[in-house]
Design brief:
This protein has 363 residues and is of the alpha/beta class. It is built from 17 helices and eleven strands. The strands form four sheets. A five-stranded parallel beta sheet has the order 4-7-10-3-11. Strands 1-2 form a two-stranded antiparallel ribbon. The chain has a two-stranded antiparallel sheet with strand order 5-6. The longest helix has 18 residues. It is globular and about 70 Å long.
């Protein structure tokens, strides 16, 4: 019988990669900032992968420019907060989680940004039963993840910062500039311990975005997370992530052939960029972002169809529904763009007859 831990659908990064983190800590001879579990060098090695002197293989968590990760980690070693910006699917949340796991061994101090978020989620709330019976007291405070990070000298994370209303965003100003969190009801303040910092993520594609004030933006060092530079790089990212997720969902490795991953990524890249990979044909782009994360989701959906309702191996038929759903968000404009792409590109491509027929049936 599986243990409770093995039944967790998505364990935290520090749990999944506990052995790697322990091996890095043991081998790490570089200087560490106060309250950091690893040195900046070891954190970057954890993110990008490598082999330690004792033979331990560190699995890459991020595929991209090393310099970007060095800048991100170096920022967190200062008193500047880090803002990861990029379109949806550029691994902002993934990198944020792994940075926190490697630096402080705890990626759970998370505030999920929404349009309805209030200041309590960022500052602190109250246990109202105790508040009514005892009045305001330290014991009645319900700390936010940010307050907990300040008290314990850990990394706090704010996801989708630009989804949060502007007046609530600005409640971070004092935290980031003065490194204190005032509690006026008790005439006290929480002072941040060394090791505390904040990682925020944001994108500019979603509707309902609240731009950051210039005062708040100045308190962040911004790192722009790019899309994968080449087809091969993006295929590798999708393949690696699909394999890891497939292990957790107990899907067989053969359920996602490289051939189908490459075809899907090619379609997404071409529609996203507005031209074919060889640059010869210009294309119209749909409204969807068609990110790497969406490609991973489409493969996952196709895997499930193949395993439970097919022969166990992902085929064009299994991919078709996911591709169409990812591309056609607007039933008129996106549908026409997708149909045009099918007729002018997919239909003419050698060896793509099966994916053309499967997708055409669903449009």
């Amino acid at each position: 019988m599986n243990s409770k831990k093995e039944q967790i659908l998505r364990p935290h990064a520090e749990e999944v990669y506990a052995k790697e983190l322990a091996a890095l800590a043991k081998a790490d001879k570089h200087p560490r900032p106060v309250n950091w579990k690893l040195s900046p060098w070891a954190v970057v090695t954890y993110l990008l992968g490598g082999q330690l002197d004792d033979g331990t293989e560190i699995e890459p968590k991020y595929f991209g420019q090393r310099r970007l990760m060095e800048i991100a980690v170096a920022t967190l070693a200062t008193d500047r907060a880090l803002l990861l910006v990029g379109i949806p699917g550029t691994a902002k949340t993934w990198v944020s989680e792994h940075l926190a796991a490697a630096i402080c061994g705890d990626s759970t101090l998370l505030v999920q940004g929404t349009a309805g978020l209030n200041e309590e989620a960022i500052r602190y709330g109250w246990n109202y039963a105790r508040l009514l019976s005892e009045g305001p007291s330290r014991e009645a405070i319900v700390p936010s993840p940010v307050m907990t990070g300040m008290r314990e000298g850990k990394i706090a994370r704010v996801e989708e910062l630009t989804r949060i209303p502007s007046d609530v965003q600005d409640s971070l100003l004092t935290v980031l500039s003065e490194k204190i969190l005032p509690v006026p009801e008790l005439n006290m303040e929480v002072q941040a311990r060394k090791g505390f910092n904040l990682i925020a993520t944001a994108n500019d594609r979603d509707k309902g975005i609240n731009d950051l004030s210039s005062a708040l933006r100045r308190r962040f060092n911004t790192v722009v997370m790019p899309l994968p530079a080449s087809l091969e790089e993006e295929v590798n990212i999708v393949k690696t992530r699909v394999e890891k997720i497939g292990q957790a969902l107990e899907l067989p490795p053969r359920a996602a052939p490289l051939k189908e991953i490459k075809r899907l990524v090619t379609i997404f890249r071409e529609l996203r960029s507005g031209k074919t990979e060889d640059g010869r044909t210009k294309l119209k782009s749909p409204g969807a972002t068609l990110s790497t994360a969406e490609a991973i989701s489409v493969i996952q959906s196709g895997q499930a169809l193949a395993v439970h309702f097919g022969n166990g191996t992902l085929s064009a038929r299994d991919l078709a529904a996911g591709i169409t759903g990812a591309i056609v968000k607007d039933p008129v404009q996106d549908k026409n763009i997708w149909l045009e792409y099918l007729e002018t590109v997919v239909k003419e491509r050698k060896g793509w007859d099966d994916i053309y027929r499967s997708c055409k049936k669903l449009v």
